[in-house]
Amino acid sequence: MPTITSHAIGFVGLGRMGSRIAANLAKVGHRLTVWNRTNSVAEEWVGDNGGAVASSLPELASVSEFVITMLADGEALEAVYDSGGLTDAIQGKTAIDMGTSGPNSFERVRAGVERAGGVIVDAPVSGSTAAAEAASLLIMVGGRGDDYAKVEPVLDAAGNPVHVGPIGSAAVLKLAVNSVLYGLSQAVAEAVALAEKSGVSPETTMDILTMGAAGAPMLTYRREQYLHPDTAPITFTVDLARKDLALALEQAGRTGAPIGQLERTAELLDELIRRGFGGQDMGYVVEAARGRG
Fold first, then answer.
1. For an engineered disulfide with 124, which of 89, 103, 174, 191 has Cβ 3.0 to 4.6 Å away?
2. CA distances from 49 to 37, 67, 170 (A)
3. With bands split at pLDDT 50, 70 and 90, how would you rate the model's confidence at 258?
4. Distance CA 249, CA 179 (A)
5. Beta bridge partners of 96
C-alpha cells in the first residue's frame, strides 16, 4: 500500500454518503474535524471513527488544510458558506464540494471562496452508499490542473477521482450522469412491470437485464431496491432525485439542450411525491409502474 500523507481535513455533512466518505478518510490516517447541522450526529460519528467535532464552521476551517462539503443540495452548501461563516474563514484553505449542488450554487460559493483567498474544486460523486463504504465511488473533479493534483491524494481515499475539466465542469457533468441514471431507473421499472404482468418474475427480469446489453452497474447494486422497494434499505430518496432533475432541467434550459427524457422522468417523480412517496427509495418507481404507487 502506498504511503499516505496525513492531512488535517474538515468535513461538513455526515449523511448517508458523507459519513461513509469521512470514515474512509479517517481510516487511511487523515486527521478529521467534523461538523453536522445536527450536532449529535457529529458526536456519534467521532465516537465511532475518532477525530474531533467543531463547535462552528469557522473553527473547523481554522484547524483544516482541506474543507470538504457533502450536503443535500445547493441551498445547504450556500448556507454553510454564507450564514455559517465558512467563507470568511476559508483564506489559504482548499475547499472540495462533493455534493450535487448544481452549477449555480457552486458558482456563487466559488466566487466567495476566491474573494476570500481560498481555492475550491467541484468533486461530485457517482455511486451508491455501498460504493461510498467500499471507497469505490467515481469522483468527477473540476478545477485547474495544479488544484486537481493537490486534491487527488485526498480523494483517492474515497474512490476513483477523475479530472473532467475546468472548475465547474464536474458540477454540470454530474447532472448529465444523473439524467441517464434516473432515465434508466424509469426504464427498468417499466420493464419489470411489463414482464411481471405477462407472467415473468421480477427476479428473472432483473437477472436478464443485468446479464444483457442494458446491464449497468446500478442494476446490480440497486437490485434489492427494485425487487423489494417497500422493505429494502433506503439509499437515495425520490425527493433527492427530483431535486437533481430540477437542476438538470435548469441547466438544459440555459443551454438549449434536449430535455424530453428529463421531463418524462420528472413527471413520474412528481406523481410519486404528490402521492406521499417522496421519502421512499428511488426503487419505488417500480411500484409506480405497476400501478400501485
1. 174
2. 18, 18, 29
3. confident
4. 9
5. 68, 121
Could you tell me the end-to-end alpha-carbon distance of the chain, in angstroms, rounded to an integer?
48
Residue 65, SS3? coil
Does the pTM of the predicted model rise above 0.90? Answer: yes
Contacts of 269 (CB under 8 A, 6+ apart): 182, 238, 241, 242, 245, 285
Burial of 273 (0-12, 13-18, 19+ CB in 10 A): middle
- Report pLDDT digits (tens) over 32-49: 999 999 999 999 999 999
Residue 66 has phi, psi (to 5 degrees) of -120, 140
Q: Band of the pLDDT at 1, cuts 50, 70, 90?
A: very low
* Pairing mode, strands 137-142 and 125-126: antiparallel
Q: Using only the alpha carbons of the chain, give its radius of gyration.
A: 20
> CA angle at residue 236 from 286 to 160, to 5 degrees?
120
Asked if 13 contacts 70 with a C-beta cutoff of 8 angstroms, the reply is yes
List 150, 174, 197, 243, catalytic entry = 174
Distances (CA, A) of 197 to 83, 193, 200, 207, 214: 52, 6, 7, 17, 21
Q: Is 93 a catalytic residue?
A: no
Amino acid in position 235: T
Task: Please report the domains of the chain, with CATH numbers, ordered by start residue.
Answer: 8-166 (3.40.50.720), 172-290 (1.10.1040.10)
Q: Which residues contact 124 (CB under 8 A, 6 or more apart)?
A: 97, 98, 99, 100, 101, 139, 140, 170, 171, 173, 174
Amino acid at position 140, single letter: M
Q: Which three cell numbers stand for residue 263?
A: 421531463
Instruction: Work out the burial of residue 290: count CB atoms within 10 Å of its CB; fewer than 13 is exposed, 13-18 middle, 19 or more buried.
Output: middle
